[in-house]
């Protein structure tokens, strides 16, 4: 266990069983009949902790029984359990020595909201993004076989995560290797929003056995209309092929065809039965898939009733009624995601070519606003970011203006698609990149701090970032009007500044603006960091330094005219971005200065070259010196230094 982990400030009172369980070894001392009570105590602890601190919710409640059964049936930590995404692993954390730390979940210095190898030897694989578990499990099994070791590997994957391409790639390879891995498919029919796609229908068919019964009934009804020789011959024929038909439609035949033995579907809340089934199948030496059916939010009525809303909670709530205890701020500014959702819907109202594409995040990106108004122009493709981008490329070939609304961190999945399928063909795809910058409690798996770097280097791309909600709207309009290739607009998680929105206007491509004039030093901001630059400038003023502040708006193409003018007047230039300092906005400025032979001194502020942990955004900004005070401190050091800090 990570020795630096902060103990929870709140002290939990554990139930009769949990007070005696500090590891899965303790769990395995209890009888199978006692498992339901243990699962219930875990569930109650999750409800209590999340009701105080927020966090992911419904998914962990849904797998309380599965988590107990897995640690009961398998010899963890030697046996490896890989949780897909990992947002459902709270009970696993509680059972694996972290119950005393659990109230620090997702807080600065506390337990991570996802399995993390650095945190515990029970966290077999680091996760946060969907659909990785089967590939990782297959790799572990291959390593085990090569090293002639003896342990079990289990991947737990939800029906939503199963829609991701990597899950299929993993199954295809695992079926080919024919080695011992158990895949547990947790089917609750939900992604964050309702799950979509053919796989969902297939799983539903399995659980209801609908297809088989329906086809059989339809055929017999049709044939019975022919009450003659033809009819009876046909019926005899059908009886003959019925076995084949049944085999084709038997539960799990799809997985069987990929090389798995399929078991299920079984009730994922019957913990005793689950533990028995797992113990039985654990000895089978080939790939197997156990299909369990669960209810997302199980055991907490409001979460069962509104599963999307209760996927995660951002703050405290009453643990009986579910009523939010977060004081609603009537003056809170709308979130950027909602400003985006409203703006793109408005723009789509005037331009029939605009279509919206989301990879399973209609609520998170608020693209569902467009879907509600123009359902025929809205596409939820499932957790399939690479497909989303190439799908958008296909629509763009035929004249549409697809807006791919994808979180920055998840867009990393679709990098080749952006280059090969969009930029290389100069297609008019718009990337609305949400959650850019530090996202807070989700931590390093979810911070969106690489996009400026990875997009900037792609030919034909236009890359911009708004400093406030009006600029977001203006940039969206600019992107839709642009006819010369792909455009990316990246904006952050959280609330805007609260400004009243004006009519959207088109911005000149590649032009920034000076926000305040000054002397001695120039601070160039991009996105939200232009606001921090203004704040820092006000603080610097009190210290006798009066900087110019520019909001550059575009990382690509960068405003070279403005840069030339600034270089001519200011010896020292500071850049600020909420993106890695490597290859991003600051680098773009340095590259241009170098190209032109400008010899100004440049200080590049941004995310340092390391992964940033979880915590509130304010804590994280403080830690890395990206809050106004931190920026001021570093600018003063720079202003008074004689050395060249970075070029
Ligand atoms: C690549 C990627 N895209 C999107 C997400 C956001 N996301 C997190 S959980 C989730 C739904 C997962 O559904 P499922 O696997 O069925 O688990 P459940 O929440 O139903 O337990 C989504 C879309 C992600 N984590 N990773
Ligand atoms: C696990 C996961 O990937 C999502 O649930 C994510 O945590 C959502 O983030 P937001 O809260 O920013 O929508
Ligand atoms: Mg699900």
From TrEMBL:
It catalyses: D-glyceraldehyde 3-phosphate + pyruvate + H(+) = 1-deoxy-D-xylulose 5-phosphate + CO2. Residues 334-499 form the Transketolase-like pyrimidine-binding domain. One of its GO terms (cellular component) is cytosol. One of its GO terms (biological process) is thiamine biosynthetic process. Its cofactor is thiamine diphosphate; Mg(2+). Pathway: Metabolic intermediate biosynthesis; 1-deoxy-D-xylulose 5-phosphate biosynthesis; 1-deoxy-D-xylulose 5-phosphate from D-glyceraldehyde 3-phosphate and pyruvate: step 1/1. Keywords: Isoprene biosynthesis, Magnesium, Metal-binding, Thiamine biosynthesis, Thiamine pyrophosphate, Transferase. GO terms for molecular function: 1-deoxy-D-xylulose-5-phosphate synthase activity; magnesium ion binding; thiamine pyrophosphate binding. Mg(2+) binds at residues 159, 188. Binds 1 thiamine pyrophosphate per subunit. Pfam families: DXP_synthase_N (PF13292), Transket_pyr (PF02779), Transketolase_C (PF02780). Thiamine diphosphate binds at residues 87, 128-130, 160-161, 188, 300, 385. It is an enzyme of class 2 (transferase). InterPro entries: Dxylulose-5-P_synthase (IPR005477), THDP-binding (IPR029061), Transketo_C/PFOR_II (IPR009014), Transketolase-like_Pyr-bd (IPR005475), Transketolase_BS (IPR020826), Transketolase_C (IPR033248), Transketolase_CS (IPR049557). Gene3D superfamilies: 3.40.50.920, 3.40.50.970. Homodimer. PANTHER family: 1-D-DEOXYXYLULOSE 5-PHOSPHATE SYNTHASE-RELATED (PTHR43322), 1-DEOXY-D-XYLULOSE-5-PHOSPHATE SYNTHASE, CHLOROPLASTIC (PTHR43322:SF5). Catalyzes the acyloin condensation reaction between C atoms 2 and 3 of pyruvate and glyceraldehyde 3-phosphate to yield 1-deoxy-D-xylulose-5-phosphate (DXP). Belongs to the transketolase family. DXPS subfamily. This is 1-deoxy-D-xylulose-5-phosphate synthase. It comes from Chloroherpeton thalassium (strain ATCC 35110 / GB-78).
